[in-house]
Automatic annotation (TrEMBL):
Protein name: CBS domain-containing protein
Organism, scientific name: Caenorhabditis briggsae
PANTHER family on file: AMP-BINDING DOMAIN-CONTAINING PROTEIN-RELATED, LONG-CHAIN-FATTY-ACID--COA LIGASE
A cellular-component GO term for this protein: peroxisome
Family: Belongs to the ATP-dependent AMP-binding enzyme family.
UniProt KW keywords: CBS domain, Ligase, Peroxisome
SMART domains per the UniProt record, alphabetical: CBS
Organismal lineage: Eukaryota, Metazoa, Ecdysozoa, Nematoda, Chromadorea
Amino acid sequence: MSSSCYPETLFHQLILENATKHGKRDALIHVDQVITFEELPGLVSKMVTKLLELGVNQGDIVLICLPNTIWYPLFFLASAKLGAIMTGISSESTPNEIQYSLEESGAKVVFTNEGVAVENAWSLRNVVVEVVPENVKTYTREILEIEHLNVETNTIDSFLLAPFSSGTTGSPKCCLLTHRNFLASTFSLKNFLFDQLLAQSSLRTLAFLPFYHASGFWALLLCLLEGCTTVIMSDFHPILMMDLVEKYNIDTINIVPSIANVFLKMGMLQGRCPSLRTILCGSSGLTKERCKRLLSLFPQVKHFIQGYGMTELVVLSCVTPIGDNFEHLGSCGKLLPGFEAKLFTHKTGEMELLLKSDAIMKFYKNGTPNLDENGYLHTGDVAMERDGFYYIVDRMKDLIKLNGYQVSPTEIENVILTIPKVFEVAVVGVEDELCGQLPKAYVVLEKDVDELLFRKHLEHTMREKLSAVKQLRGGVVIVKDLPKSASGKGSPTKREMSSFKDIHHQRISHMTASKSTTMNESDEVLPRTTNDKEAFARLLWINQCYEAMPSSSKMVVFDQGLLMHKAFNGLLAQSTRHVLLSDPESGGKLDGILSVTDFIKVMLKIYRDRATAGENKEKNELDMSQIANEEIGNLTIRQYRDLVRREGNLKSLVSVDASSSLLDAACILAENRVHRIPVIDTHDGSALFILTHKRILKFLWLYGKHLAPLEYLHKSPKELGIGTWSGIRVVFPDTQLVDCLDILLNKGVSGLPVVERDTFKVVDMYSRFDAVGIALENRLDITVKEALAFKSQGGPMQNDERVVSVRDNESFWKAVNVLVDHNVHRLCAVNEQGGIEGVISLSDVINFMVVQPGSHLRNITPPKKHWARHHVGDMNDKELREILLTNAANFEQESNSSSSASVSTLPVSQNSYSKHQPSHH
């Protein structure tokens, strides 16, 4: 193997030693912060002190969860000086992704910002969390430097950085890169390319690729090593990028194909960025035609460098050389010094690129890379070589490269497979002109699955468990089957997937045919099936919405001409979570709901406006982001809803007919992700009552006792996958209320467990409705504990929504009984010490018991009951209301008579389904 010369010293020491040579030159610039090379060693020493204070020792892993910031290089150099190892993840990671990263890396300490720490408190519960401000010098001012720190056992084969690969085989893996790996890679690239580039450079570059990715972070470290000034962007924006290039006379930028595509979409960039001389493009290939179009926008560029690399080998193995004069556009370049390559021919005829070098890692944190017996790394990429230039023509690994991010299909597939009724799934990348690639899923569903409901469930699951870059923006296709390899494993490729037929139209035609299916009165009241998980769904299927009407209920209706401040006063006075909205212009027709969610949105708006009251912004058109706090209360409800509509966030009123099945109602609640739905009179369109998850579960609990025993009721919710058991959103008593409300408003949860900071023992629950009560004090600059004190002193929810819990190993039926018995929206599942382990909501329970197993029944007309004299559609208003009141009274009577039963009692009747239904007239 040809050897690339590199010094036998620790990589971070080279950077710190060279820093003293560059003196007062700016090293790092971020917004209004500037760090010089002269200041760098002292700041690093202070951060070593901080790491020691936090209990970090040699060999420990430190995780950074921040956007691009000056903190990244400081934490890296401090960790390396101490003999610790740094890793990084996106600050936009979901709680599940954070939890996975912590488990995979074994990180001991997490550095992050206030927002991430508050929103992901439960996922971060088992590690030390240090919240850092934006200003580095303010944070480090009081920290003492350690003058002499000797870590004698560190060698160039000690681990230095642990970035996450993007899951070439499976979910993302934590790569353990050594000083030797960094030295070999860096000096190979210096000798081949960067020494020549830097000789012609103004030594200023712009960094906007994510620092938690290898390519973005290595480029930053090279600049520190060589004395270049790096201007840092936290987030990429093309106009801001060009402004910064011009402001600082940047001559080198590092991009990915999706950013190149943004430039191509913008067009007319001639004359912008006159100082720009070098563009480096990696991540995935850029076609020859696109290269030419990009360079025509920046004719001043002298060097357009493309490369090929992997996280497992630090950064790059192939690079186009200087002086190539664009003859090999589209190639990833020549092999770097210190690398050996060979093309391995598989039985399929595909030629996989194999690489060998001192730059290649030897270990994942939990496993080893795919090396052959001679130490060559299997890259998983199909390549060809011509005249010493390499071309990547396909991927044996199906890694998706989107906007410079690398997305693991397997990770997405594993999330989709958690959805009930999914038989198989394959995720591939589809080409996209703007983004490079987009994830697309091909899904095989079990028989008789409601496709519309599945898509709603899929959308919710993806949004809850995966970050934005991993969403299925390439689409979802329902297919009959997936291609298999000879061993029987799913082996979809892009070519095979492109031949699949979308069977959506087949399912729609099947559903349409099913709608005409009816049952004779002589048929069984409930059709039997081998899948007894459908029992509760069938119970709702044969019962109509009016049969769950409460004997007494309150509906509040507001005219949309009412002023907002009066509407919220009315909400407080009525102690209700919501009011229906009528439109007098359409004869009083109901067309919306005003809820506590709107209340929270307005309160946060007013609070933030007050915080920025000194800013005077010119307003041309009313917009939610521009309404002053003194104006918003004087808007009418209609004006407020128009603003929400303009934002694209206004939801249409969802309702259900009184004669529809309760199964329909449950499915509509799930599809629209709402907690309540008006039940509408068949004749005049007026609202009869509000049907909620609570009411449906009580109906199931009361009449479900008469069903044959179901095996799954004995299992725990955790075993069944009911509820949230990872990435739980929690708050602490000292969490600021505005942060708590922000989570409730923007993170898709309606209640937050309040837990002790050290033990995570659940002490209370803060729900959206509690925010209504705190409005009486007219202040949000308080803690959750202070808000809870008001709640316990007689707020509108004094006796409701308090924390109710079950043990994490108790049965599902016990959880159902506790939900009904305490009349709450959610349960906390706790361990023996009272620490939170999971959250089980009403919607989780109803989706599992009814929606998921029984949604296909909606396509079949329910049977008429033997004992029903009239169908609701044949009755006049007086008859209908008499029946409603009678049924409601019977429901309440049976409910009350059952309340003394043990909450752990399981359904015990040996008879099936037809004899013990609710009373009817």
